[in-house]
Design brief:
The protein is α+β, with helices and mostly antiparallel strands. The protein has a domain of about 110 residues. The strands form three sheets. A five-stranded antiparallel sheet has the order 1-4-5-12-13. It has a five-stranded antiparallel sheet with strand order 8-7-9-10-11, with no helix packed on it.
């Protein structure tokens, strides 16, 4: 029978799912033929990404114009932060205040899948997806690897004054540039024997010049910092302060006035309602029903300095109602029902029947 083949396959699937914290439950004598589960509460998880930029002035910055002909030198050490973007995803966590139970008779063969918290994922079939939404990867940091101390020669260190050290460093920069030009044009007295050797020499000259130039222009490093906050939507919220952001200190608490506020707004656009029959009468929950959620909907917006960081329309379990599916549909020998639930809301994502032939 096709149905029994599916049950056999489900055992194989379950052994794989358990490794990923998804477990199959089957009514058996040891559990009194009863299966327990929870429905989820919807939580919004937000990740904020900011860039922290650190500038360090070089010891010879006041001579940059004189010797290098540029006024772009960093003149003082400073740190600044900019808020780049925010990403919003939803997750379901078990509402442990309400536990539901499905009770069957000996010989009946339905099964359910639950996650590690006990939230129901599917009935009579494997869940759709075993992985939650994830935040996008953050860009790599750009940390300056220039070591200005290694650029200081013995002659520079013994020169006795900053002005003289700067002069010697500038002369060394121009010697390096001349040497590189001679190598590139083939006019050097001792040309390397092959292209790979030439490449290595050029790279070393570039590093030496970068270290010496940093003595005048300074260095800049950027580091990405992230902050994650979880929020459980319940009601309408207009411009609530979720936290603050400082262009010096980065993310700070909501009551820390050194930062500008990041506002959270929630607009409940739809509340879940019980289904009605053709006469408009609210349907009754079947006895011993498989409980599921009919979620509501909300728009969530995050703003900072009058700019929208992100805005999403999401389904929310706690803005909905709990209804149920008749348990007899699950145990039909001819065409048992299968159900796949949304793991974030407990709502039905897919429902159908399995042919017994």
């Amino acid at each position: 029978m096709k149905y029994r083949i599916l049950i056999a396959l489900s055992v194989i699937i379950a052994s794989t799912l358990q490794v990923q914290d998804v477990v199959q439950l089957v009514p058996e004598k040891f559990n009194d033929y009863a299966l327990n589960y929870y429905l989820p509460t919807t939580v919004v998880e937000v990740e904020f990404v900011a860039t922290q930029t650190t500038d360090k002035a070089g010891p010879y910055y006041q001579y940059a114009q004189k010797y290098l002909g540029t006024s772009d030198a960093i003149t003082e050490d400073r740190q600044r932060c900019t808020l780049d973007y925010a990403t919003m995803i939803t997750r379901g966590i078990a509402n442990t205040e309400n536990r539901y139970q499905l009770t069957f008779k000996a010989g009946q063969t339905p099964y359910i899948f639950v996650n590690q918290e006990g939230c129901i994922l599917s009935i009579n079939t494997a869940p759709d997806s075993l992985t939650n939404d994830e935040f996008p990867p953050v860009e790599k940091d750009q940390i300056s690897d220039v070591d200005t101390h290694k650029a200081l020669t013995e002659e520079m260190l013994m020169s006795g004054s900053i002005a003289k050290m700067a002069e010697l460093a500038a002369k060394q920069i121009y010697r390096i540039r001349e040497s590189r030009m001679n190598l590139l044009t083939g006019e050097a007295d001792n040309m390397p024997s092959d292209g790979e050797s030439l490449k290595i020499i050029i790279e070393q000259l570039d590093k030496q010049e970068a270290a010496l130039t940093a003595l005048f222009l300074g260095t800049t490093s950027t580091k990405h910092i992230t902050k994650r906050i979880k929020y459980m939507p319940q009601d309408d919220v207009k411009n609530g302060i979720l936290m603050r952001f400082s262009d010096v200190y980065g993310f700070v608490d909501a009551d820390n006035l050194c930062g500008a506020p990041i506002y959270l707004s929630v607009e409940v656009v739809e509340k879940g309602e019980y289904p009605v029959d053709e006469k408009g009468v609210i349907k009754k929950v079947p006895k011993g029903a498989v409980a599921y959620c009919i979620p509501g909907k909300a728009n969530i917006k995050l703003q900072y300095e009058k700019k929208t960081l992100c805005e999403e329309a999401i389904s929310v379990a706690q803005l909905g109602v709990v209804f149920g599916i008749s348990p007899s549909l699950l145990t039909s020998k001819k065409e048992p029902t299968f159900v796949i639930f949304n793991p974030d809301t407990g709502g039905i994502s897919e429902i159908g029947t399995i042919s017994a032939e």
